[in-house]
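The freezer alarm interrupted the setup, so I double-checked each line after restarting. Inputs confirmed:
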Amino acid sequence: MRYHQAVHDVPVIFEPCERPEVSEPFDPTVGGAIPRDLQRADLALPDLPERDVVKHYVNLSQMNFGVDNGLYPLGSCTMKYNPKICDEVVSWKTVTDIHPLQEPSTIQGALRLMHELELMLCEIGGVDAVTLQPAAGAHGEYTGIQLVKAYHESMEETRREVILPDTAHGTNPASAAMVGYDVLELPSKDGCVDVEALKAAVSKDTAAFMLTNPNTLGLFEKNVKEIAGILHDAGALLYYDGANLNAIMGKTSPGKMDFDIVHFNLHKTFATPHGGGGPGAGPVGVKKKFEAYLPVPRIALRDGMYGLDYDWPQSIGKVRAFFGNFAVLVRAYAYIRMQGGKGLESVSENAVLNSNYLKEKLKDSFELPYGSLRKHEFVLGGRPLKARGLRTLDFAKRLLDYGFHAPTIYFPIIVDEALMIEPTETETKDTLDKFIDACKSILKEDPEILKAAPVNTARRRIEEAKAARDMIFSWREYEKKLDSTGRTK
Amino acid sequence: MEISKCSQEMLQELHLGSLEELFADIPKEVRTGGLKLPPGLSELELRREMENILSPNKPASSHPSFLGAGVYHHFIPAAVRTIVSRSEFITAYTPYQPEISQGMLQSLFEYQSFMSELTAMDVVNCSMYDASTALGEAVLMSNRVSEGNKFLISRSVSPEKKSVAKTYARGADITLAEVGYDRETGLVDLNDLKSKVSEDVSGFYFETPNFLGPIETHWQEIRSILGSRSMVVGVNPMALALIKPPGEMGADIVVGDAQVFGTPMNLGGPMIGIFGCKVEHVRKMPGRLIGMTTDIEGRRAFCMTLQTREQHIRRSKATSNICTNEALLALASAAYLAVIGKSGLRKIAAKNVENMRSLSSRINLVRGFVSPRFRATHFNEFVMTSEIPYDKVNKELLAKGIQGGFALDRQFPELKSSALYATTEMHTKTDHDKLIAALEGIR
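Predicted 3D structure, all chains:
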């Protein structure tokens, strides 16, 4: 164990000790054109030399762990390495300095790129049309369920319910609820959709069934065709959550599995960096029958010129201003072009190989529910930890001490003390072996060490309950609270 | 397909003969035979190809552009790029493990702090996708805070935002109704607002400066007309360096876009939605919140908090479905504001006002043009009206290598042949001269 994260005491940028003597007195007449009754009286922002600001954030960055620091096997998030060329391309002025309302004749390159990306996603997803507008995966789900609603309304039907398995990502039920649907969570059987239960649950009130395949346990839903049949026979639609697409590229596609509406997570499958929480991009693809409802504008190619087409009267309208997270789209486009068709297929092969290798090596130390072969990720049960008075959380925190980001924990909820592990294709066997050794070594450690972990990170265990109690969301509130308790600053 | 030695070893450990066997669980009936995509490219080939594809784009740096309408061309100090390019930030994800993610967590807390200070709101979350979706979420939240299935929205709001708000409202069975603006001042038409505020109205959204440029002055009147209904205010956060913040004027929810702070235009994405509210409504707000706390040794620390509002815990009962947000842009905003500083920000904002006033009055002197259209205080955007159809003006400008303002004819037919012009600190006098000369040449 050689990992030690940098530990800096970096004051909050608003703190007096971070404010050397460069501050000028507040001059309310700056912007003298603003009438007095509209003028701002004060603005408590820092005034620091550039040198100190750079020091501040560089030191903060050293207290942050990204894929570039090491293995980040956060299940369902596909934390793969992002080729640097893709970041460099989006720093070009032909990307950064173009405005969405420019005359289409002056952004032909951008429109062409988006049009070609749509076509490539059609091929990968097995769909007929794509919108790039949604800003993230959950936003794609939201868009997709709006499409479901628009479709049923055009059939003059009111259907009130969206069904999904209990292993579904939390965004699925939340997205369906935001579009106004009641949500029915279906208990799984052997880790997969319980087909009989689904049959019993589907009715004339069912608008759609949301599914990811492989599912969040990393299991391929073999009955997907039958599931599609059940839904379609009832006039309902099948929605594909694309979070797990990294497992199946070139092997199968949502379209081939008879899904009607699909979202893609470009920041997962197509290697655009996750940015500490975003931006992402969540394009949505559909079969021909649902194209009319896609958000506007659509990108159209006519007589060799790319343009914007608003003439889709049945469209759901817009889900976001303009065209989507363009800089993310450019990165994903570059990644797909770099990989090519064969490269993407090989991405999935290696993602699945790495996942199964890890699973095989770790399954005896934990519990592996539901059969053997997995796709890009797998979920271990943490009951053996429990037997030693430990929780999965303790194990996860100890992994940090070894220089690995923790897997996703306590999800899906059907697995007790779950550890959801997704190594991705970009990690070598050597890294995986080191991770395996670390896991095994942790399991042999004194339980007290795990309970006290982490110790090699910038901070030790965080008092999360205190944060919820104190509710300090800004420096302004912090100062107010200090004032009110009479403590000195 | 070629297979590496390491892969071979791993396959052997799995007792598998080929990679293909890893996919044995996918039924034949749903198998596809590979992808019909062009062959892969080396990094050098890719670079050439990307240059080739992107080169037809005309960036604002190569021709003066007077477009704004929600996306603005501002200066970005080099230090901001240095900070947001740090691998540790850019390749991390949502800080689910706070002990190893303090850097991003503190940066996001600082972003929340900057936005809280600028807007004077108690709580600002650590980002939404953009201003339009922040507005959509505000419509939904207003409905949770104050009962009522109707929401009022000012007419002087961008068509993009209105369209998104409509989509969000439809999902929740909320009806949107429009409140007009005063044709002289461009400000909220108080009589129209009064006539439309009814029992079933949960809130009202207006902007300052609004889409057409004017900075709102009738705060007290609007607040009193609304009573206990939500007052939802849209802001350009850069203008808040100079003007009174909505938090001091009684706003319940504030939305906006922080793209102006350190993020390039990028064809309008990614942007970063600001979302703030009063602390008493914090449990009803969407999005992630970072809170200050300590670690077990008592050292100051930060973590995500009040997560029971969120989808990964509350599922269908969550306040929103948002998961991935715009964290890196929140970092960019914090870094921008820190680098520019208070004095710098106020100077830049003042330069925007100065440029707007100068350009607007110069356009007004050109025969055939009236500017600004509205008798009001503006920030960096204004409406100009031309005698000849604006489409024609735009075409002629384009022919002279100038990207004119955003044509309003379609969405604001009452303004006849008008356009929305934005000018920022990026414009030099030469840029303005070029536009004026071109306008003078139009007959």
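Quick read of the result. The longest helix of chain A spans residues 326-362.
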